[in-house]
Amino acid sequence: MTFIEMLGAAEVRNRSMLCVGLDPDPARFPGSLKGDASRIYDFCAAIVEATADLAIAFKPQIAYFAAHRAEAQLERLMAHMKREAPQVPVILDAKRGDIGSTAEQYAIEAFERYGADAVTLSPFMGFDSVQPYLKHHGKGAFLLCRTSNPGGDDLQNQRLASVEGQPLLYEHVARLAQGPWNLNGQLGLVVGATYPNEIARVRELAPTLPLLIPGVGAQGGDALATVRAGLRSDAAGMTTGAVIVNSSRAILYASSGEDFAAAARREAVRTRDVLAAARNA
To answer: CA 48 to CA 251: how far, in whole Å?
Structure first.
């Protein structure tokens, strides 16, 4: 199955738009795991097992592993997810952005070393920084488009005088991803939940692309506004472009005790149900 096909199957099977972000911070680990970077795999594996039937995707953030020299633990975790939750696609949150042979190596890292189904990318060095990832059959790539951080305005919300119609930069990225850049049909866009109006604009410009939406949960994004802005369905009620709403810290650190996995599951159920209610509102 391609990444897009996996997303669709996971959405139906788990009745979910929830992406569980895996951002392991040993300083915040619960109970006996607290402060122990050698237990990153154990912590994340427990979260995966507790939420595998609730998620449309998992999203490990590579920096949280690399900062603790835990790349080997990330490899183990990726293999564990493939064994324990093969129905849930894995998006490696790496935000790579480079050209030529370097981009080719990053693509090998994401798809061959770690076995990710998709990866996040910065598109601001142009198409030749994205194209190497599209050569990997069936693999997905999410381009940063309108991110949830306040500094996103510095570039993404600037108008392009040199492009016909003078679109905002994020609008231009959305058009490119929906159109000429989407060579393998597996591109998606990252749009922050803190900007529902911009989510709606991106969906207008990219009606069939999956949208990866961080910012619901600890960052304060509104679930109802997010889903209404990003979700579109066909006459049969099937989603025409997946909405993948990420929650990391609210789920990972739902409890500081030994019951952390059970607490993470409860929070994941709550978030999934909130998103489902927003879908039906």
So the answer is: 11
Task: Say what the pTM is.
Answer: 0.95
Instruction: Report all structural domains of the chain as residue ranges with CATH numbers, in order of start.
Output: 3-280 (3.20.20.70)
The whole-angstrom separation of Cα 111 and Cα 182 is 18
- Alpha-carbon distance of 181 to 183, in angstroms, equals 6
Known catalytic residue at 139:
no
Q: Which amino acid is at 178?
A: Q
Tokens of 114: 């770690």
Q: Which of 34, 59, 82, 95 is catalytic?
A: 95
How many Å apart are CA 248 and CA 65, to the nearest integer? 15
Per-residue pLDDT of the chain (281 residues; tens, 9 = 90+): 999 999 999 999 999 999 999 999 999 999 999 999 999 999 999 999 999 999 999 999 999 999 999 999 999 999 999 999 999 999 999 999 999 899 999 999 999 999 999 999 999 999 999 999 999 999 999 999 999 888 999 999 999 999 999 999 999 999 999 999 999 999 999 999 888 999 999 999 999 999 999 977 544 468 888 898 999 877 766 788 999 999 999 999 999 999 999 999 999 999 999 999 988 87
